[in-house]
């Protein structure tokens, strides 16, 4: 799958909802309930980070939940890419982008959202064909203002920023035409997941799913 094809698919996934929950799940027994709550609240695209020993099993369990589109985050190596694809991930997210990760996603046919921050990183990925990129870590890299500045000279690249985004600042991001959606962990607070408090998570998802986006005018 070429980078251009990967970005086309990534754009479709980003179009599903204004927010992609970034999930760190330790307890496999919470996976299905968490995914069901998020999908019910209007957030079908889910990023499961490969930061816990159970992450691949969590992807497998969430992939069974109707209406969800489950991806793998924190892809750092080609073997992460292979394992994520084998577990049923429909997309991949990396905090950065290396030639080996990009090659693995091409070989495995896994649509990648590669990470970039600087104009040179954005341009380097654009040269390869990636027109949809992750901007990470968003808040500490200049936040919405930095993305607005990058969007001046490079308006053909669209972004999913993540890192430090919550209800307090999400509107700054979603108000920009080059921002398709944002990623964030605030939708699934650790305590609510641990307590299987699906009503709280569904309510947070519902609030996030109603956020307006400049990239998708009504
Ligand atoms: C991450 O990779 O952890 C994401 O960027 C989520 O960041 P957040 O926890 O600040 O939302």
At a glance:
The protein has 218 residues and is an alpha/beta fold. Helices cover 42% and strands 15% of the residues.
What does this structure look like?
The longest helix has 13 residues. The two termini are 31 Å apart. Strand 7, helix 7 and strand 8 form a beta-alpha-beta unit. By secondary structure, the protein is α/β, with parallel strands linked by helices. The strands form three sheets. Strands 3-2-1-9 form a four-stranded parallel beta sheet. Strands 6-7-8 form a three-stranded parallel beta sheet. It has a two-stranded parallel sheet with strand order 4-5. The mean pLDDT is 98. The protein is built from ten helices and nine strands. Bound molecules: 3-phosphoglyceric acid. 3-phosphoglyceric acid (3PG) binds next to strand 9.
Distance between the termini: 31 Å
Major β-sheet profile: 4 strands, parallel
Question: Based on DSSP secondary structure assignment, what is the total number of beta strands?
Answer: 9
Q: Give the ordered list of helices and strands.
A: HEHEHEHEHEEHEHEHEHH
Beta strand %: 5-15%
The general outline is globular
How many H/I helices?
A: 10
Any ligands, ions or cofactors bound here, and which?
A: 3-phosphoglyceric acid
- From the helix content, strand content and strand pairing, which structural class follows? alpha/beta
* Rg, Å, rounded: 16 Å
Q: Uncertain segments of ≥5 residues (pLDDT<50)? A: none
- Average pLDDT works out at 98
Strand order in space, largest sheet:
3-2-1-9
Q: Into which percent range does the helicity of residues fall?
A: 40-55%
């Amino acid at each position: 799958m070429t980078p251009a094809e990967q970005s086309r698919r990534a754009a479709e996934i980003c179009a599903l909802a204004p927010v992609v929950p970034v999930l760190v799940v330790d307890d496999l027994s919470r996976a299905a309930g968490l995914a069901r709550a998020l999908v019910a609240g209007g957030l079908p695209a889910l990023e499961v980070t490969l930061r816990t020993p159970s992450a691949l099993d969590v992807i497998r369990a969430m992939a069974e939940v109707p209406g969800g589109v489950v991806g793998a985050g924190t892809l750092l190596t080609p073997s992460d890419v292979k394992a994520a694809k084998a577990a049923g991930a429909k997309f991949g997210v990396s905090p950065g982008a290396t030639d080996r990760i990009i090659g693995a996603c091409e070989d495995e046919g896994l649509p990648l959202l590669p990470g970039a921050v600087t104009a040179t990183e954005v341009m380097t990925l654009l040269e390869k064909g990636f027109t949809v990129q992750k901007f990470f870590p968003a808040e500490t890299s200049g936040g919405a203002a930095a993305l607005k500045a990058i969007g001046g000279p490079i308006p053909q690249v669209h972004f999913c920023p993540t890192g430090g985004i919550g209800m307090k600042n999400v509107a700054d991001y979603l108000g920009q035409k080059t921002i398709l959606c944002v990623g964030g962990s605030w939708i699934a607070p650790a305590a609510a997941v641990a307590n299987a408090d699906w009503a709280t998570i569904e309510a947070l998802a519902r609030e996030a799913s109603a956020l307006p986006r400049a990239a998708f005018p009504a």
